[in-house]
């Protein structure tokens, strides 16, 4: 499944969607998740810091967090009647030692 078809609405990181015209503007939509690191992943990350390489456990954690935050944003957009979200952006912030938030946001619109 392509990333574009994973969600029931169109997602774009640009202000417009090629070939579509914005017919209605609904406003800001958001989705977030807060995740804590896993002790097993921390141990493996410590080993990788010695030998180098990708921290796959953290990569998977970030992918899961991004998916969950995006799904929550999409649900909010759908509840407003939107069929697309434009200007999609992601941000992260540290919440506490070992925990971080991934925040997705964009503008809910209806395109024709």
What would you note in describing this structure?
By secondary structure, this protein is of the alpha+beta class. The chain has a single domain, classed as Hypothetical protein apc22750. Chain B (Translation Initiation Factor IF3). Helix content is 34%, strand content 38%. It contains 2 helices and 4 strands. Strands 1-3-4-2 form a 4-stranded mixed β-sheet. The longest helix is centred in the middle third of the chain and has 25 residues. The protein is elongated, with a radius of gyration of 17 Å. The model has no long low-confidence stretch (mean pLDDT 86).
Main features:
four-stranded mixed sheet; Translation Initiation Factor IF3; alpha+beta; elongated; about 110 residues; single chain; 4 strands
Topology:
Elements: E1 10-11, E2 22-36, H1 39-51, H2 56-80, E3 84-96, E4 99-111
Parallel strand pairs: 1-3
Antiparallel strand pairs: 2-4, 3-4
Please count the beta strands (DSSP E, at least 2 residues each): 4
Taking the sheet with the most strands, its summary is: 4 strands, mixed
Query: How do the strands of the widest beta sheet line up side by side?
Result: 1-3-4-2
What proportion strand?
35-45%
Contiguous uncertain segments of 5+ residues: none
Question: What is the gist of this entry?
Answer:
With 112 residues, the protein is α+β, with helices and mostly antiparallel strands. Helix content is 34%, strand content 38%. It is elongated and about 55 Å long.
């Amino acid at each position: 499944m392509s990333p574009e078809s994973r969600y029931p609405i169109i997602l774009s990181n640009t202000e417009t969607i090629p070939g579509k015209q914005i017919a209605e503007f609904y406003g800001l939509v958001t989705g977030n998740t807060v995740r804590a690191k896993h002790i097993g992943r921390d141990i493996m990350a410590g080993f990788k810091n010695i030998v180098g390489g990708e921290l796959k456990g953290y990569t998977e954690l970030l992918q899961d967090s991004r998916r969950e935050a995006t799904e929550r944003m999409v649900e909010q957009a759908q509840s407003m009647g939107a069929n697309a979200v434009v200007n999609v952006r992601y941000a992260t912030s540290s919440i506490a030692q070992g925990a971080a938030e991934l925040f997705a946001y964009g503008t809910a619109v209806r395109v024709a």
